[in-house]
């Protein structure tokens, strides 16, 4: 369900260990996506299925071609495979674009945007920044990009072009191990985050109109988020992307009625039905029934499996991605979701 085939049309070296892969659908149609989302790819490695998600760096309306960017990960079997062996013309299988690390704010002139990125965390951030500037060229945007050295700057030329084109785009680069001795070592810490923000936000109205996007290693995101919360910014003003997925070790929730529950799936491909036996998740039961539901992390953190529940009740053991608004609109995660009643899940609705 929702699997598509894409062809690698072009490969661009971004840094010595990072490449961008330009993709096109085999049917020639354009993929519908939002800046900041990702694609989940399905690989076969030694007879087993392996899924990996890579952020989209392109921006609809800004570039004509969709591209993802892949950084080599130490001991990463898929990133090594992609960087060392994949070539132009190769065909890949992936799911439709998903992810909630996107700009959902109104395109108003009063909003001020702050982006904190580290390493390959710049990939979705780059797409979101371009989308904001494309819609509102006068939007004030501040980007702090933390990376290792001058040679490790992903999208170096693209970021420079944005800086030269938009006077309202402020860009600061921190290098933790610069190769040039004249460049000082800089590592972002909580005091710097507080100062960088408060130097640009001066009153209550500006604080209310500030929007923050954080993407990078877990410790980096935790530090930035914790600092912003201590500084009085609300949780809903801060968005972060999960790159490191933690294993789901949560036990099934306590459900009074442990009898089998009926699941009805509405999808473009048709209607599918199966039973869920406690304590299975909806996703696992679907696999057993040979119903291919979309998923990636299987840990309640990425939203690839999110779907609208139009009837019945679903209890989730873990949810690190859906907001209160999402839950009100009926969104649930099948990877950590357990039906408390018979349910209907509608994949035809835009989630």
From TrEMBL:
PANTHER family hit by this protein: 1,2-PHENYLACETYL-COA EPOXIDASE, SUBUNIT E, NADH OXIDOREDUCTASE HCR
Which Pfam families does the protein's record reference? FAD_binding_6, Fer2, NAD_binding_1
One GO molecular-function annotation for this sequence?
flavin adenine dinucleotide binding
PROSITE patterns membership? 2FE2S_FER_1, 2FE2S_FER_2, FAD_FR
Which organism is the protein's source? Pseudopedobacter saltans
The record lists the membrane-crossing segments as none
Residues of the 2Fe-2S ferredoxin-type domain: 261-351
This protein is called Oxidoreductase
Give the cofactors, semicolon-separated.
FAD
This protein's superkingdom?
Bacteria
Q: Does the keyword Aminoacyl-tRNA synthetase apply?
A: no
Q: Which UniProt keywords apply?
A: 2Fe-2S, FAD, Flavoprotein, Iron, Iron-sulfur, Metal-binding, Oxidoreductase
What positions does the domain FAD-binding FR-type occupy?
Answer: 1-104
């Amino acid at each position: 369900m929702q699997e598509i085939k894409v062809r690698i049309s072009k490969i661009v070296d971004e840094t010595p260990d990072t490449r961008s892969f330009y993709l096109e659908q085999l049917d020639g149609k354009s993929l519908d996506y939002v800046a900041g989302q990702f694609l989940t790819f399905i690989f076969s490695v030694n007879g087993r299925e392996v899924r990996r998600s890579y952020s989209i760096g392109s921006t609809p309306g800004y570039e004509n071609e969709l591209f993802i960017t892949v950084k080599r990960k130490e001991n990463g079997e898929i990133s090594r495979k992609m960087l060392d062996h994949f070539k132009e013309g190769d065909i890949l299988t992936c799911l439709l674009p998903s992810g909630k690390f996107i700009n959902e704010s109104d395109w108003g002139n009063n909003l001020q945007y702050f982006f904190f990125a580290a390493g390959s965390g710049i990939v979705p951030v780059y797409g979101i920044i371009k989308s904001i500037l494309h819609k509102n060229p006068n939007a004030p945007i501040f980007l702090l990009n933390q990376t290792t050295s001058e040679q490790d700057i992903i999208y170096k030329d693209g970021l420079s072009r944005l800086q030269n084109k938009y006077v309202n785009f402020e860009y600061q680069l921190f290098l933790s191990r610069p190769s040039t001795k004249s460049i000082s070592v800089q590592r972002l810490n909580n005091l710097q985050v507080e100062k960088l923000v408060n130097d640009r936000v001066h009153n209550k109205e500006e604080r209310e109109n500030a929007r923050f996007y954080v993407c990078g290693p877990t410790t980096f995101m935790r530090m930035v988020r914790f600092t912003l919360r201590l500084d009085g910014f609300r949780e809903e003003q801060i968005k972060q992307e999960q790159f490191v997925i933690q294993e789901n070790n949560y036990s099934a929730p306590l459900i009074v009625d442990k009898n089998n529950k009926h699941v009805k799936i509405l999808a473009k491909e048709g209607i599918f039905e199966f039973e869920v036996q406690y304590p299975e998740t909806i996703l696992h039961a679907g696999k057993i029934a040979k119903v291919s539901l979309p998923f990636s992390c299987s840990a309640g953190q990425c939203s690839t499996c999110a779907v609208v529940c139009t009837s019945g009740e679903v209890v989730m053991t873990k949810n690190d991605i859906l907001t209160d608004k999402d839950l009100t609109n009926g969104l649930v995660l099948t990877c950590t979701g357990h039906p408390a009643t018979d349910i209907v899940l509608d994949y035809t609705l835009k989630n």
